[in-house]
Amino acid sequence: MTTLTVTSPVTGSRIGDVPAHTAADTSDAFARARTAQPAWAATPVAQRKKIMLRMHDLILERQSEILDVIQDETGKNRASAFDEILDIAVTARHYAHAAARLLKPRRVRGAVPVLTRTHVERAPKGVVGIISPWNYPLSLALSDALPALLAGNAVVLKPDEKTPFTALRAVELLREAGLPRDVMQVVTGEGAVTGQAVAQECDYLMFTGSTPVGRKLGAVAGERLIGYSAELGGKNPLIVAPDADIPRAVRGAINACFSNSGQLCISIERIFVHADVADDFLTGFIAATDAMRVGGGRDWTVDMGSLISEEHKFRVASFVDDAVSRGATILTGGRELDELGPAFYAPTILTDVPSDAELFAEETFGPVVTVQVVDSLDEAVARANESDYGLNASVWGAGPTARKIASRLQTGTVNINDGFAAAWGSLDAPMGGWKQSGVGRRHGEVGLLKYTEERTVAAQRGLSLRGPADMPREQYAQVMSKALRYGRVLLR
Ligand code: NAD
Question: Which residues are named in the active-site annotation (predicted)?
Fold first, then answer.
């Protein structure tokens, strides 16, 4: 079998090899999953819940070892890696407790009051395919898998080729927590081969990654008529209103722009600051950016780690260079940090980026943010919405001002006085993108229910809907017309 080599972005050295699974290998994994799934679906929800809560405990207990694996593969700083531990623990707990309520059969109003008793049942889809990216290799491998499993599905996961070891370790932990072996499997390999094979075999496809690949997978899902949700790219705005608490907004912006070296679908890449507070905000933001500690290693005090690869660093650098060549100004950063390793790039603030620069509208997916001063909040909202993407937004200001702005933004999540964590961490609420940022949602009720099929069961008692067998059709029409007229008044 051919293999893929995983290398450390910090040192460039080899971490290990994983199999490059073929389409036939992927079919075998699905066959095993299909064999295991019915027994798992028949396992009481209370038992599945216990396994998820054990997973919650294991992920916290083993965090140090998992943090090492995440950091080795991604080069991210330890604090950003810990965000993934936190996310998975909270997701496991949330859906463990929510599953029984969400999956319970639901009584609904029947066709005819009293005579028709109708309820809606939920059944698992079967085998869910998950294709995940490298930027949050633990979170994005498991946060969709856990609700899919709780709903009684088996899962086949295809992690990114740069970060397979985190996914493999995570699934070992799930097995240790009690998940039957074949109920969740990992197939490592290239997107175009293994990822496509997953899309061709699964009963529901969950994808997190870039918009171009999301579109390709949507075509496969459309052709196969299977359910699909996709969490894609963003070009997320942050608005600073005149009544914002500026020191707090500065700290929030640092976190929102540079967490995980900006390689976060919901991180902020565009800031619109009101002219009344622009000087204060910019002075603080530039100083705080310059004070960030960038580096590799396990030290918890490092603020920002490396990018995922040297190749990605070159892409980020080329976006910045292109903007500067078209007239943008660098306020700080704007350079590679080769003294730290092959894939480090300085946290960067740009201003006056012209609209023909690539990074004006395209996702950089790095530690680069543009700041633009605006004369009014109306202008801020208009410019924030001027994007093909619509994933996340952040608003800094006093409550009423911020809420009014939030309700005008065309994004799936809006965080008030926070960058992204408040909405992402609100697991009871749906999360996802408008426009080119995705289809469907994760989190919330839909984050589990999308992995189920609904079955409506209606039991008719006594009289059939067609009326008494011997009633002439015309008389039936008259009786029913009268009943409908009363029903309009009585039934609401
Ligand atoms: P990518 O789309 O290139 O890769 C993501 C996954 O898709 C990987 O597992 C890859 O192997 C697989 N893949 C690639 N080509 C494929 C194909 N033709 N068929 C099937 N699978 C294929 O994304 P990336 O560049 O690695 O990740 C960064 C992107 O992901 C950014 O755009 C970012 O915004 C987005 N992202 C979105 C979210 C979100 O929740 N909205 C979260 C994280 C990342």
Answer: 231, 265
